Structure formats: structure tokens, C-alpha cells
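Troubleshooting entry. Yesterday's outputs looked truncated, so today I'm pasting the complete records for two proteins to confirm everything comes through intact. If either block looks cut off, that's the bug. Protein one:
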Amino acid sequence: MTLSYRDILGDDERKTIEATITTDHSSSHYGGPVIVLPDGGGLDYQSAALLDYQIEEASAEEADLLNEWRRRMPPLM
């Protein structure tokens, strides 16, 4: 899938990256989906909010996991 984020520590422009989503990752809790970034790390909810991550493109299978990922997201306020 393709994601974009705002580079707040650089030029403040949107950057695009390729990522995956899976339940088979060391950051997964109780089988929950994890968005895996190009460096292999999981995208945490704080970074997703602070860097304004957006989904640019996702398959139908990825969309199902993304819906579950969003459902598990803690309230921001």
C-alpha cells in the first residue's frame, strides 16, 4: 500500500512511502494489525497522528486490516 506523511522535521512537505499491513509482526498485540514501514518498524498511533499519515492507495485485503487498525486506535483526546 502507499502512504503519505508530513515531514515536520524536514521541509514540511508530504512524502510518499510503500508500506505493508500484517498481523504477523513483533509489534502486533493479540493479533492486531500493524502497519510496517520500509525500515521494518511498526507505525505507532502517535506517529500516525503527529505526522498526519494518510492512506493513498490500498488493496481490498489491506483495507480490511486498515479498518481493524483504525478500530483499535486509542482516542486522541
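Protein two, checking that the full record survives here as well:
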Amino acid sequence: MMLDRELLVEIYSAANRVGKFQEIGTGYPVGPGRILTARHVLGETENSKIEVRWRNQLGPAREWREARIVWERPDLDVAVLACDAPDGLQNQYGSVSEWEPRNNHRWNSLGFARCGWVEDKDNLQTEATPLKGTCHQRHSRDNTFHLLVDGATSLPDGWQGVSGCPVFVDGSIIGIVVRCPKDFDQERLLAVSARSFSQDPAFREALHRPKANPHRTRVRKAMVEALKQHEWLRDIILLREGERLTAEELTDRLLNKPLQDFLLDFRHACREVEETPPDCDAPQSVISRLALFACPVLVVPPDQDGLLAEIATRTNAEVSMASFDRRDPKFVLTDREPVGEYAIPASPPAGFEKIRGEFSDQLDKHIFKKAALYTIEESEHQESIEIINSFLLEQRSLRSSLYYTIDQRILKDPDLVRNTVDFLSDRYKGLRVIQLSEDSEHRVVQAAIARHIAFFLSHASGSAR
């Protein structure tokens, strides 16, 4: 899920006061009733009163509600709060990634920055300020990284309030803003990398996450064995990394990269073996098959059921579907781009522009047909919905979930998209929804991924040298 302004959380702590004004912090939901933020936003006093609100919502969601700390790492300056999420927002949150921040990655965020506050006598009216720029990695083993900010504020302490901002790259949270470093004229922010805490068992327990992903474990084991068997491939990638790593260490490094960077490493390896062939049959085939096999685990799967990360190409749709169902990808190479063997369907008749009435009836009929329930009497309709939900959950267990798409060219209103997803998730417990994105930067990245995957598909069968 991409950064959603409506989900941004404003945080107040009675123990965190600066001058005559209360210091405000920022947070973002990362699980049902769980908010990720910077630890210092919550103050140093134990048992201090902490309150949060969904500032950009309307109605009760905008009212202050109490929260408490359920996980913290003061050494990293990060924490997770628990609170009762507003109605309709329990399953709306971001995915925390294990990606390593890389130089020149484009990032974006929102935060309650001081430069966006409106002062009215002794009161402050906070407003969310959009932020974007490029990442700057300090060191591969450092837990923090710099964020170069496009359009930095000139107001002294203008970034006060952005602590706790989520750092989004390609639809996933790769870090949390913790402070504004000195001596950079407020053109940089310092963030803690999410990979420094995302695998912490206590963090995963606080978010009620499973301890391990069996699909990722299987892919990791296969990649370690492949790198040990084909030392020439390991040497090529290590030369590009500039470090000496074991097969296990290199595998973990590769699987913690964004998908585009991972595929670029393997494209580079294909070029190298073309220029200097190793003592191996069809080395480009070896590289290509390994890249295609591993790519689903490099997509950060959403933590919530129902909505997949926003997709800009049908190639990425298949990668995300394979990630969600924890299976190997199955591509068909077309003239335009690789698409999934389980092709994602278009919206049913009547489209997603009508959430109730005609749309609901058409979708019911469409799914009934999929489950071979061709004749449904009106009196049996609710019972049939229950049968359909059993069918959908069975398909998920067989790693072949049923998917539908929401196309932003039709539904451009974020509230309408959210309402549609909520309606579908409530009615059909096992249905997956793919949101097709029109974001230009997102589309550029995913178009490049599609080209890489097309290249690997064309070389995967290979031939002996």
C-alpha cells in the first residue's frame, strides 16, 4: 500500500514539552491498532499520558484517543504504540520493509512539521506537510541513513514534528525519521532503517506477525546452495558489492534489496558471463532461472488481507500475486510484457464505479460462476455467499487466490477506493484486490522491472555453450 495521507497519525505526549508549546510527533499505522513512531516523541517519563489521532480524517477518527507503548528500542529511537483504531481503519496500514536504503532511491512521506503549523495565540493548528527527496546511504552496516529533502524549510526548527514520519520507497516503509542533523541547513533528515528492527522477534510479536515466512526460507536455502555450487556467480556479484561475504551473507544481502536492484545485479551478471564465459553450461540460463525463482520474496507482501500493494504493470501483478500466495511465479511472455499465467481479470460488468446495487449483483454472479454455482435462488443468496467464502479460502490454501483489480483510471478518489476495498473485504473474506496505480514514478520503476523479467524469461531455457 502506498503512503496514504488519510492514515497519518498525530501523536501527543504529556511528557514531551518544548517551551510554551507541546511538541507534536508523527506516526503511521503498521498493523491493526499498531502505530510506528520515533521513541523520543513519547517523552522520557514512564507512564506518561500518550494520545493519538488520525488528524486528516473526519468525525470520531479525528478525536484524540489514548495509546500505550507495546514495543520500543531506545537505542534505535523507534517504538510501537497500541490503540483502538477508528472504525473502518482497523485494516488500513503500511508494510514495513527489510530493504536496505540505497543512494538515490526516491522517497516520500508526510509529517506534522513545525513549518506547516498555524499559530493562533497559544494554540497550534497542525497540518500535514508533504516531504520527498532522495536517500543517501551512510554505510551498509549503519542503522541510520540520510534523506535529502527537496524544498527544505528555511524556518528555524521547521522540521520539528516530523519525527516518526514513515519513509516510503516503492510503496513500503524502509525507515522512520528520527531527527534533523545539524550543519546541513535543514536540507537533510536522519532516518533509522526499518531493516534494523523489522526482524526483531519482539517487534514482530507486537504486530502479531508470524515469526518466519516459509516461502522465503525455501528460496533462501536454494539461493545459498546455488551460490555455493556456482562460485563464478558469487564472485561476479561480490565484485559488484565490493565486499567479501559468505554465500549465506550474500544471499541475505540480495534478498533484502528492492526488486529492481536485485534484478539489476543479475542482469549485470548475465553481461559478465557473456563477455567472459565461465566453465559452466548455459550460465545465463542459471542466472535467469535463479532471478525468476527468487523475485516474489523481494516484494514486500501486505500485512493485511484483501489489498495488494499498488501495481503499475501486469508483470508486477504476477510477482505480487506469487508473493501473496507464497508460490513460484508463472509468466507468459507476450509482445508487450510478461504477464501471469493466472491472468488478473478486468473489473466485472458494471465496473467498480458502483459499489452497491448493480455492481454487487454482477460481482456475485461472476464469483458464483467461478465456483461453479450457476443457479442461485434469491432465498439461497446469503447461504451462497458463505459457500463462496469457503471456496475463496480454499483457493488461498491452494496458493491460487482469486483476484480482482481496482483501476485508478476509473476510481481516482482515494476514499472511493478505500470504501470499495472495505466492501469487498467485508463481503468476501478470501478475495484479493489489486490496485492498479497511475503514479508516474511507480510506473517507471515497475516498467523497468518488467523489462528485466522479460530478459530473464528469454534466457531461462538456455542452451549449452
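Both blocks look complete. Sanity check on protein two: Residues 45 and 229 are 55 Å apart (CA to CA).
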